[in-house]
């Protein structure tokens, strides 16, 4: 059968050409004894499978092709992609998926019997045989086996199914391969005596050509000791493997084992051209991100403080359970902060993946009950492991990728937990895709880390997403994050960075360069600690200091960008003609504030990452404009020299004399922002430069500056309508903004005003608020209320007369409860009313205290107790036939018990409350 054809992405033709050149037979047709061999080293998610399929059609259009993959899931996925690439030849899968309807639909026959395999393939090509690595492992005598996930790499014994079919069985023999493609080839490296290493042996698995494909080439050195040491026997099995796995950067394998010594056995290292051949084409992780092939990414270090020290004797399972619960809450908070809607969590224990997925919806519901604005309403959570049938795994993956739950409803937030089943090669695409991955368990090898990262970096062409790589760090009680270099809590971050460096050294190098350029200023990167209060009161001096530090850090960040750009120029990072994205350095975020010097030592930095060279030129031009003019108010016709703006760009000639229409570029950013088409991180970058998004914004910020100046003098934004500051009619400005709906659609403006004065728009007249603030300032400065008599003025307002008026019973009763509470906090109470004790006077004439006292007496008489729930409302009847009046008795009594209110009660009022049955603290 044939499926829809696809067009190669711009980076793939070069890879196809390199493979064809490297594996094309010489003109005389003679094949070397070991066959032709070569490597395709390309970042995960860059389309190696399609590239190999297209190259195979050109190399051996009618030949015998073999494909080795690590898992059952990859068999179905690879077959589908080869069909899409135009391969219509018969296909045979050496696996146990004979009843899989999806493979039947793709016209693939399945077997695990060597004789049947030899019979089906005896006629030769055109034919494609696809098998898992398990087919290289010796099987039972009857030849029947369940060949699924390749988990027996160290098995020794007789020949596997492929080798038996190639040797010949019962008079049938499978012909040698014209092309053998070994996907995830790093799995065949290491111990040269293990079963999977048979794929290198020309006598056992004959092939004219071999193409090894991997994103993570592994370079090995034999350790001292016996071969059994490398095999892991006596060292705790596979997890205790003793061989030194040395990625391209030797430093990335510091924890992998010894690096030197006399080899005790043969090893298969991917730098051995006799076994793996030369590297025919290479595409690194950072280059793939720079060119837009893969998504840019941010590493979010989610620092979670543990509630208490479990102690050395604590049950490990209890500790794991507590951490999983804390991680769930932290992830939901973090997802809201960064806008993530779909995350994958990776665990090393099946039970952890199951527990995480099953408990998440309940956790989300509990959190939403406390804060419905932050936490999602509909949460979808599922999990997968190797025991799930292949069809079910495909169904769950498709549902997750489309953002659906089991019932087909669209979820607000989706989680897919897994345990060692969704690593290598699995391509997860849908209407929602994958926003990020979570390393829920730090016990991952560098190769596993890179493969997990690949699940999040895949993107559709031109999508421009930013994937999130989330690493939870559990801080012990009292642990200082500044001590991270010596803290075992940060081992998961170290493991992730080592894995990244194994994939591409530049990923970590760029972090170091930018971090060193940040100087020594302390900076708060992102406050996402789930146990940290959302709002913290800070005095004005601290705010100013923080702003100054941030400004200095921003200047230093610019210097760091320049250093990184210079380094890329020296190294020839990538071909500017081929690149369609600005270099998108990874951003490492810590959820707690950190000193950049500490971060640099820990390979952490913050790097700006525009999406394309065109956008970068405009951004750099605006940055220089701000540096020269002090603001980002750029006229529409502004034109600047392009050479001056390109000094920090890696691919622009510094000697150019061209000009750049900066005004037009800024106008285009405003238009995109208004249409909602501007990427959020682009808007953030522009905001850091003080971007003026509209002419109206310019006027607003000018008036806001005047309002801030007024507040600095008066302590309030409740200005009279005729107030002016430096010629700006600030009173008129604030009065207009207080109108209903004046700030609809402008939440940032509301935020800016509240940042100056949280009571800038009270629920009562501004004149009242202004007088209250003046009185409070005097009392806070030590003035006595008794001396604030009529005639005492502040800035022209007679506050003495204002106080006397508030004490009048008819005025007092017209105030809101909040206004009364504010006045009582200053010691201002209404004039005493003798009718309060009799209960037969005018209800409106009673003070708030007397109303509460009457309600309390009625409640005690009916209920027999003075313990009143806080939310209780008492309906008080003063006289027969009168309408009941609602009194919020619970709130009133709670307020009376507060220290501030209690201190202001008179002896007469205390006695009345005691008589009514209320015991005051």
TrEMBL record:
InterPro entries with a match to the protein in the record? Helicase/UvrB_N, Helicase_assoc, Helicase_ATP-bd, Helicase_C-like, Helicase_Restrict-Modif_Enz, P-loop_NTPase
What Pfam family does this protein match (any one)?
Answer: HA
Q: Which SUPFAM superfamilies does its entry note?
A: P-loop containing nucleoside triphosphate hydrolases
Annotated ranges, domain Helicase C-terminal: 330-514
Recorded hits in SMART domains, A to Z, give: DEXDc, HELICc
- The segments labelled Disordered in the record are 217-264, 523-582
What protein name applies here? Helicase
Instruction: Give the species this sequence originates from.
Output: Mangrovactinospora gilvigrisea
